[in-house]
Structure formats: C-alpha cells, structure tokens
Specification:
The complex is a heterodimer of chains A (236) and B (106). Helices cover 42% and strands 17% of the residues of chain A. By secondary structure, chain A is an alpha/beta fold. Chain B is mainly alpha-helical. Chain B is 57% helix and 0% strand. Classes of the chains: A alpha/beta (236), B mainly alpha (106).
C-alpha cells in the first residue's frame, strides 16, 4: 500500500519550488492533494485539485475552504509552505513588503491551519507541518521581518499543538536551509554561500532532505511528536 | 427559503445537532441537556471551554455550508455585546438569526 493512500494533503504554494516538490511527493505516494496558490496549476493528476487563492487575503482563504465542504472527505495533512521574501535593511524596507510577509508567511498558515483543523476534528487525525527557515535561528541582516515570521511559525505550531492535541492532530515545523528555488534566486549568491559554508553540514538542502522530515512528521508513527521544530543542516 | 419561524427552527436544529455531536464525545455524566434554554457559557453551563469551541465550530460550519457564505460567530461584534450570544441556546439562536437577516433576509 502507498505511504499516503487514503490521505488528503493540502499544500500551500504548490505550483513551484519546495511546495511543488512536496505536493508531487504526496501524489507519487498515493495521496489526494489540494494545492493552494496564487497562480495556475503546474501539476496535472486526477488526484490533484488546484485552487487559485491569494494567500495574503484571509477572506479568500476562508472562501477556498468553503468551496471544499462536501467535495473532499477530509483533510489529513497540511503543509504550510507558501512564503514571500523581501530581504532589505530594516530602515529602507517598504512597509508593504513587510506587510506581505506577515500576511503570507504567518497569517495565512494560521488561517489555513484553523480551517483545516475543523476538518481534522471530524476524523480525529491530522498532521500540520509548517515550513520554517534557518533564518529564524540565524537571524541574517536584511531578514528582520522574514526571520520574525518564520520564528513565529514555530510558536504558532507550538500553541496549536496544545489546542489540537486532544483531536490527535500534531503541529510541527521544519526549518529548511537554502535550496535552489525562485525565492533563493532573489538573494545575492555570495551571501547565501557564506551562510551555507558556516553550517555544520555545509551544503545546500536537497529535496530528499526536506521530504525525509515531511514523511517523519506526517507518519502514523509520529502521533507523539508535536510542537517540535526540526532544522536541517545542523542549524539549531 | 423558509420564513422567520421556519428559519428559527432550522437554526435551532443546527445548534441541537452540534450539541448532539458533542454529547457523543462526552462521558454519560458530562453530557448536556439539549433545549432552547441550555446554558452554553457562564456559571450555569456544563460545557468547558473546549466543548464550547467545538459547538461553535460545528454551528459555524453548518451555517456556512447551508447559507453558502462565511459566517463568524466570534467576531468583535459578538464579543462586545452586553448580553453574550453564548449565554444559552436561545441567545445564540437570536444572534444567528440577526446575522442571517443581514446576508439573506427571511
């Protein structure tokens, strides 16, 4: 039997980068997948349902969930992956860019998790996984708001772990390091390489590194693992 | 669409179903009596805070699906009222009817 047979996973930011990789992994292993993203679908599979939604807009997210009632049997796994990044010195960071990071990186995971939890409480089973970042720990110059939102994701998961624990729903955070993606391409390569060189495991992350921890958090056997943040590459 | 009386019955049925669902999760001695006067919040209520949240979520979801519009029972407006909509089933019913009147007049 496939690893995720009978499970429905919701992945935000599923059209590209890490989100697409995770969504494909769930599909390849037997899950039905719901993708939330601003753009058009980039995955084609009978088991994939794409919903175009602006994750910066809480009302739009709620409407997207409203459309799922009666159409899906349940939502078992959530991966809050979508994020936006503007790296800039705080004194010249545009407020709109800061607001966008708060909305997409922190408020959207809150709304998605709370709406998905309403499905999970019916089945008394759920796995909520937030995609965090090494920035939360390394606190690089220019990433004041981005790092704060990613640190906030861990706190969000930890509180929700308490609220949802009785429903057999776990909430954890995976703090990823740098992986080649559109988001990474926005940053100076030399800056990223300097950060990577200082890690205990001085290399970029691979898809396998990320999927390994996703599978761990999402597994049936991880029901006793909640309110945890796992960083890749030796970040702590 | 149902008239005012019919709509009240529909809302009451949704709240009763949420309480029934809650009772199925509770031990026999913890179960709540179900009726229009059932206290939901306060000293007389048998529900703890998590049970009340469960009922609110079930009622919100059922209303949202039935009326095809997001309905929030716990926004600032509800929380700032002098008489809480969560005092008992009757108060919650009145509050929901008020919200529904705004999105879909009976």
């Amino acid at each position: 039997m496939d690893l995720y047979s009978g499970k429905t996973a919701l992945v935000t930011g599923a059209t590209r980068g890490v989100g697409r990789t995770i969504a494909e992994h769930f599909l390849d292993n037997g899950a039905d997948v719901i993708g939330f993203a601003r753009g058009e679908a980039s995955l084609t599979s009978p088991a994939y349902r794409h919903i175009e939604v602006d994750l910066a807009d809480p009302m739009a997210i709620q409407k997207a969930f409203l459309g799922l009632h009666g159409k899906v049997a349940g939502i078992h796994i959530v991966v809050n992956n979508a994020a936006v990044l503007t790296s800039q010195y705080a004194m010249i960071m545009p407020p709109a860019a800061a607001q966008a990071m708060v909305n997409v990186n922190l408020l959207a995971p809150f709304i998605v998790s709370r709406e998905a939890a309403k499905f999970m409480r019916k089945t008394k089973w759920g796995r909520i996984i937030n995609i965090g970042s090494m920035a939360a720990s390394l606190e690089p110059i220019g990433d004041s708001v981005y790092a704060a939102t990613k640190a906030g994701l861990s706190t969000l998961a930890n509180v929700m772990a308490k609220e949802f624990g009785a429903m057999n729903v776990t909430c954890n955070t995976l703090g990823i390091t740098a992986i080649d993606s559109d988001m990474l391409a926005q940053l100076p390569r030399d800056k990223i390489e300097a950060i990577i060189a200082a890690l205990p495991v001085p290399r970029f992350a691979t898809a396998e590194d990320i999927l390994n921890v996703i599978d761990f958090f999402a597994s049936e056997a991880s029901g006793y693992i909640t309110a945890q943040t796992v960083f890749l590459g030796g970040v702590n | 669409m149902a008239g005012a009386a019919g709509r009240r019955d529909e809302v009451l049925a949704i709240i009763f179903e949420a309480l029934e669902s809650l009772n199925q999760e509770l031990e026999p001695d913890e179960r709540v009596e179900i009726g229009p006067a059932t206290p939901l919040f306060g000293a007389d209520a048998k529900l703890d805070s998590l049970s009340l949240v469960s009922v609110i979520v079930d009622v919100e979801t059922a209303l949202t699906v039935k009326w095809d519009a997001p309905i929030s029972l716990t926004d600032d407006r509800a929380m700032s009222r002098e008489i809480s909509p969560f005092d008992d089933v009757g108060a919650l019913t009145d509050y929901i009817l008020e919200l529904l009147q705004e999105i879909s007049p009976a």
